[in-house]
Request: fold
Amino acid sequence: MSTELHRAIQRWQWPAALGLIEQEACMRRRLMIGGARELPLHLALQNPSKNAPPTDVVLRLLTAFPPAAAEKDVDGNTPLHLACRCRMPLAVCHRLLAAHRPAVRARNSSGEFPLHVAVRRLPGQCACRDDVIAWLADVWPEGCSAVDGEGDLVLQIAARCGASAPTVRLLLGECGAACREQDSSGDYPLHAAVRALASPEVVSLLRDAEPGVAAQECSRGQLPLHVGVCCGATLALLTYLLECHPPALRRRDRAGQLPLHLAMSHGRLELVERLLLAYPESVREPDAEGTLPLEWAARHGPQELELLLQVHAATNTAIVSHHRGQGSAPAVESALPASPTLDPDDSAILAADGESRRVEEVTAELERGLELVGALEAGRLRSRAFLRHRMGAAVKTEWELRHQS
Reply:
């Protein structure tokens, strides 16, 4: 039977509920709602975080009926689970645990401990307080190594839900091995954090904890760089991911797409330019449907991007032609990875010569690059535009990438 107190709680009328707590004799009764038996304390803590009850209401409800801290709702949640879900302050969680210590090790019907609930953020919800998460991990450290009903560790959930840097740092200290484990979605924590558009600090923490994961593919066959391009990560974060694992520029995902092709399909024009500057040969790389970047730019890109693509193609072609004419092709193709769309000789020339990658670093090579493309139609004008882009690039050159990989 519904009482005035229950109705006030359901309508989020917290001042009225506070006044009724002492008056209602039904505090020790259960309320039937759709066949589910709920206590007033459960009802109060089931509200979304934006409508969460004031601290004094929760504490008064607990004081009026302390055994409620040990009761579970229809979904198997204790009040501590619910307090973590609606982002209650640390003082409330302290009181709930003091009233029922086993609650920190209790699973709900989804197999979650309160710590799992605390780091999980649903769409539209505020993040749980860092001090609550740190307190739960301190009270029961084993929870950091425990999996929920889907087999996910706390760090994996935190990365997927965009947890803050202090929380990620804490969980790394408790269970750093989780960085090497894929979650139920097939993501490593690094991939999950990039997918959640986490802060650069969080991504840096996860990468530093396990550097090798930057070269690992998730279940979708994507590296963190691919994931970031698809999910709209900032250019600064993508540049950082590129620096973490430069060969990602030349890695295709399971659908046969390079990071450049993903940037093209997602309309990231400034990113297309940056990826071209880092990997000039990709101008000759078709995507999974056979479309070349230059063809894509002719249909979708601005005139400046199309010009840049043309200059990339012209410069690379001119350098290869020059060395072939001089007979100066070095025999190093066995020591360097060949670009898929260049024959081995061409790839070896471009990789070993380095002039198409380092023109922004050495003035003599800059002038040499201008000479090589000067004979082409409008070549000198285009090459100057291209070389200016190269000089302003804040990414590592392809020549460096090949020799570091």
